[in-house]
């Protein structure tokens, strides 16, 4: 669109350079600027939405961290096991609670800052863009309408001039004064001059708008940069403070001495915990009810040798005569290696003892170590014993004789077993360390007249006797 050098030279409208009524759209530039302002308004609107969403997210995070806080808000279960002073696990959890509450508050503060300080920056900018749109519509838009109106008037007179010049040629120049082509032509020039003035005015307005748009867009970008800079400060402050709070939590946990809780636990429970410097318990230092009752003290105890029925060799075992009038046989006198259950038990009031001959003496009776059922089916057997010395044999014989049901004067050499050997089930396992080998001898039977049937009848179950060495206790009376 060209601008005439002078409004008083409308004749230039008739040159071949330009048309009187250009075919351009006078509102095209205005619409283009309007669309651009809409684009800027939407861009700023996106930033508003972003800040608003971030604000809502921080507010929601504040609530979520309140839920996180509830996970450690209650006192610790079995919390009495932890030292309640600072520097321990309880203090660490208190620090976690405090910092988690601080993180929640920081999110709330960030949400307030975004809504109260950052969001208004973009809201004001969007308002400025809307005002600029109104200014464009009322200014350059109104000028475009005036140009269109002036062009319409010019176009009308140009058409009227065309009609009258055609009439002039057909009627030979006869017409009314108002229809004189000369007058009409001057009227066209008048209206064309007004049209061009409006076009030039509108052009100046558009140039002014165009120039101002560069500055306005620079203002928009500066405002966006300022707003995002403020936004960065807010979120950076939040991030740094949250980082510091998490760092404080971790630092507090790392500063807990490794033995802090243990030392406190030891001090609080020193009356319950075991003193490692205290000596271990010993059976010798333990007492229990009836430990020294007279029925628990042996009449005589020690090691004796008993001849087996099959191998006819002597095996050494540990024997005890108890105040309950039992003669018990054990593998050993050790009370701790295994449960000391008797390998053989004779109830002496139901037994017969022969005479003592040197180191040897015989006892006849039933093995009652198997209980009532075993006792019912057991048979009486004559057991041949041998002490280590004649004096020890005499002491054993006297102790057994005092509890035995019957005493005979038969010596072991003349004793003959009254029960079949085939019914004997006890075989002593020969131990090379403790067994004493002797030639097989056939002892004579002990006199059994006057014994009732219960003492001379019955069968005995197998009573295996292994030759485990038994040590007497010389310091204890009656032990060998």
Q: How are the SSEs placed, and which strands pair?
A:
Elements: H1 28-70, H2 89-138, H3 140-171, H4 181-254, H5 260-268, E1 300-307, E2 314-321, E3 326-330, E4 344-347, E5 352-357, E6 360-365, H6 371-377, E7 381-386, H7 390-403, E8 406-407, E9 428-429, H8 453-456, E10 465-466
Parallel strand pairs: 5-8, 9-10
Antiparallel strand pairs: 1-2, 1-7, 2-3, 3-4, 5-6, 6-7
Report a brief summary of the structure.
Residues 1-25, 408-480 are annotated as: Disordered. This protein is an alpha+beta fold and 480 residues long. Helix content is 49%, strand content 10%.
Task: Please give a structural write-up.
By secondary structure, the protein is of the alpha+beta class. The chain has eight helices and ten strands. The strands form two sheets. The chain has an eight-stranded mixed β-sheet with strand order 4-3-2-1-7-6-5-8, covered by helices on one side. Helix 1 (28-70) runs parallel beside helix 4 and helix 3 packs antiparallel against helix 4. The N and C termini lie far apart (143 Å). The relative contact order is 0.09. InterPro entries: AH/BAR_dom_sf, BAR_4, PH-like_dom_sf, PH_domain, SLM1/RGC1-like_PH, Slm1_PH. Keywords: Phosphoprotein. It holds the Pfam family BAR_4.
Question: What integer is the average pLDDT?
Answer: 77
Largest sheet: 8 strands, mixed
How many angstroms does the end-to-end distance come to? Answer: 143 Å
Could you say what the CATH architecture of the largest domain is?
A: Up-down Bundle
How helical, in percent, are the residues?
40-55%
Shape: rod-shaped
Per CATH, the superfamily of the largest domain is: Arfaptin homology (AH) domain/BAR domain
Give the strand order, joined by hyphens, for the main sheet: 4-3-2-1-7-6-5-8
Query: Which CATH class of the largest domain applies here?
Result: Mainly Alpha
Elements, N to C (H/E): HHHHHEEEEEEHEHEEHE
Unreliable parts: 1-17, 414-477
Domain unit count: 2
Rg from Cα = 65 Å
> Approximately how much beta-strand content do the residues carry?
5-15%
Q: Would you tell me which CATH topology of the largest domain applies?
A: Substrate Binding Domain Of Dnak, Chain:A, Domain 2
Give the total of beta strands. Answer: 10
Structural class: alpha+beta
Number of alpha- plus pi-helical segments = 8
Keywords: Phosphoprotein
Protein name: PH domain-containing protein
InterPro entries: AH/BAR_dom_sf, BAR_4, PH-like_dom_sf, PH_domain, SLM1/RGC1-like_PH, Slm1_PH
Pfam families: BAR_4, PH_20
């Amino acid at each position: 669109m060209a601008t005439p050098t002078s409004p008083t030279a409308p004749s230039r409208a008739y040159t071949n350079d330009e048309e009187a009524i250009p075919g351009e759209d006078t509102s095209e530039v205005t619409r283009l600027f309007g669309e651009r302002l809409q684009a800027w308004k939407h861009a700023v609107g996106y930033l508003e939405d972003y800040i608003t969403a971030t604000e809502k997210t921080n507010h929601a995070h504040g609530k979520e961290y309140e839920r996180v806080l509830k996970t450690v808000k209650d006192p610790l279960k079995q919390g009495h096991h932890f030292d309640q002073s600072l520097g321990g696990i309880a203090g660490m959890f208190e620090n976690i609670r405090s910092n988690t509450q601080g993180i929640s508050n920081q999110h709330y503060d960030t949400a307030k800052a975004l809504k109260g300080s950052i969001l208004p920056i973009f809201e004001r900018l969007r308002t400025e863009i809307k005002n600029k749109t109104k200014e464009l519509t009322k200014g350059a838009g109104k000028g475009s309408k005036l140009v269109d109106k002036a062009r319409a008037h010019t176009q009308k007179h140009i058409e009227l001039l065309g009609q009258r010049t055609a009439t002039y040629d057909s009627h030979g120049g006869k017409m009314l004064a108002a229809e004189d082509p000369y007058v009409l032509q001057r009227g066209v020039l008048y209206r064309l001059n007004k049209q061009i003035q409006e076009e030039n005015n509108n052009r100046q307005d558009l140039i002014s708008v165009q120039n101002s748009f560069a500055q306005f867009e620079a203002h928009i970008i500066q405002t966006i940069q300022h707003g995002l800079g403020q936004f960065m400060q807010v979120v950076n402050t939040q991030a740094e403070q949250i980082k510091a709070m998490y760092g404080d939590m971790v630092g507090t946990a790392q500063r807990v001495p490794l033995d802090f809780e243990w030392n406190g636990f030891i001090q609080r429970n020193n009356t319950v915990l075991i003193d490692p410097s205290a000596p271990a318990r010993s059976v010798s230092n333990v007492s229990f009810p009836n430990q020294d009752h007279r029925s628990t003290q042996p009449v005589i105890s020690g090691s004796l040798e008993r001849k087996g029925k099959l191998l006819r060799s002597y095996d050494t075992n540990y024997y005890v005569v108890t105040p309950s009038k039992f003669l018990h046989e054990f593998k050993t006198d050790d009370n701790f290696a295994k449960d000391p259950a008797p390998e053989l038990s004779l109830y002496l009031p139901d037994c017969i003892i022969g005479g003592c001959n040197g180191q040897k003496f015989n006892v006849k009776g039933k093995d009652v170590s198997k209980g009532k059922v075993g006792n019912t089916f057991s048979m009486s057997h004559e057991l041949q014993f041998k002490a280590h010395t004649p004096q020890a044999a005499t002491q054993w014989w006297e102790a057994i004789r005092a509890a035995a049901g019957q005493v005979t004067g038969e010596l072991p050499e003349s004793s003959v077993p009254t029960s079949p050997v085939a019914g004997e089930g006890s075989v002593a396992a020969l131990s090379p360390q403790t067994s004493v080998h002797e030639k097989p001898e056939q002892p004579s039977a002990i006199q059994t007249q006057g014994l009732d049937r219960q003492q001379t009848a019955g069968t005995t179950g197998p009573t295996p006797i292994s030759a485990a060495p038994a040590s007497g206790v010389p310091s204890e009376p009656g032990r060998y």
